[in-house]
Amino acid sequence: MPSADIGLIGLAVMGSNLALNIAEKGYTVAVHNRTTGRIVEFVATAREQGLAERVVPEADLGEFIRAIRRPRSVIIMVKAGQPVDDMIEQLLPHLEPGDAILECGNSLYTDTDRRFAYLGGKGIGYLGVGVSGGEEGARHGPSIMVGGSRAQWHNAEPVLTAIAAKFNGEPCVAYLGEGGAGHFVKTIHNGIEYGDMQMIAEVYGVMRDGLGMDPAAAADVFKGWNAGPLNSYLIEITGHVLAAVDAPTGKPLVELILDKAGQKGTGAWSAIAAQQLGVPATAIEGAVAARSLSARKPERVAAEAVYGKRAGGRAEVTLAELEQALLAGKIVSYAQGFAVMAEASRAYGWELPLATIARIWRAGCIIRSRFLDQMAAAYAKGDGGNLLLVPDFVALMRGAHPALRKVVAAGAAGEFPLICLSAALSYFDSYRQAQGTANLIQGQRDFFGAHGFEIEGRGAGLHGTWPATIAG
Ligand code: NBP
Questions:
Q1: pTM of the model
Q2: Residues 9 and 32 sit within 8 Å (Cβ to Cβ)
Q3: Comparing C-alpha atoms, which of 419, 407, 395 is closest to residue 323?
Q4: Measured from the CB, is residue 80 less than 6 Å from ligand 1?
Q5: How far is ligand 1, taken at its centre, from the CA of residue 406, in Å?
Q6: Residue 450 lies in a domain
Q7: 36 lines ligand 1 (CB under 6 A)
Q8: 237 and 179 in one domain?
Q9: Where does 165-210 have alpha helices with state H?
Q10: Among residues 127, 156, 183, which one ends one of the domains?
């Protein structure tokens, strides 16, 4: 007799915590993992936490499926990529029409689109579910971005609502559209996360090299900022990371950590999606590029030997200006990320609810912040479009962009690399410039390729009378 409300495959960090979260909320969860040792370990953990009675462990995949009540909802939380396709093929013979797979890893949204279409053709629902919040979020309440089969979303909705993070009692979970919509939104979430982290790291660089602050002093500043407009999980943990001391040496831990950042692909996918959709997302692109540059440590060491160490002196900026610069950069980065989602929504026919996305990112996820609550409130008033034109944010940006300008200028003069902050400022200056310089680009394009240009009042598709040949 089936006894489980839902099934979950993949008992590594994320899957096991998600399963414990489900059991804790009163639902019975059948669990399976390719390597059976993980099932044994998981049951022991569930027992320690008093949750074993709501766990149905099954080493045999067929028995696992039969343990779940119909129509079945089966969560897959395995490594993204080929393992997901392998798992789907193994599951298919056991599933029946009306059942659904909920794939909760960090999958590429186009893979999710493909799987959604493939399984739809077999009468099996497919939900691509973005889950943010890391290990802690999975255990106690992640932000959950759902896309895919709408009918099967309703079957799984009670469980996902129960396990999601809550912001003022509101669950941070929503259905966002068909196919890969949920995974697309999770990808852009991660792109924005890259931007937030990079801009924070750049400001830390100015504090360290331009203001001569040690990590403990910088930690205090971030702790203070967490009580202001930058209040967020990432600012909070930055304070903790900067304050940490390495026990064996007694030195600040952050100074011992190698300056090579890792990445698993979602930031790059955001930048690629933005480019494919023709939406400028320079802050996110800058953040991804900065991580890639950081990883090329030997090249940077060699280049420093060629050009010498940074010659610039003290940065002529105040801590208050750094705080405002970070706020201005954040407004630009979120404006870009949301613009990418708005365009994707049009291009892919998803109708992504931008206000809802801001709402479900207010708790549970890595970018949770006071800022997102302000965004959700602004969007709820019907203020759509580019965030830089939303009245509440216009006021914030008017107040903050002079500081961003001053910090970027200090970076240029003092030789502090500010890839992301300077990209954000250049975007802002380009975005607000009614008369740009693309008239020259169009002239050049017509010169070498007869691509044509437009003159107001005279129409498009016009051509210049260019010299047929030029010297040299
Ligand atoms: P991992 O990404 O490390 O994957 C490990 C799991 O995948 C294990 O259960 C493993 O089974 C299973 N697996 C692999 Br590998 N190949 C398999 C195959 N061919 N067939 C069946 N199972 C296979 O786990 P994770 O860190 O918990 O992350 C799970 C997903 O969640 C990933 O997509 C990740 O990107 C995403 N995510 C992670 C975080 C985070 O903070 N870690 C946050 C948000 C999202 P085994 O035990 O038999 O090897």
A1: 0.96
A2: yes
A3: 407
A4: yes
A5: 44
A6: no
A7: no
A8: no
A9: 181-205
A10: 183
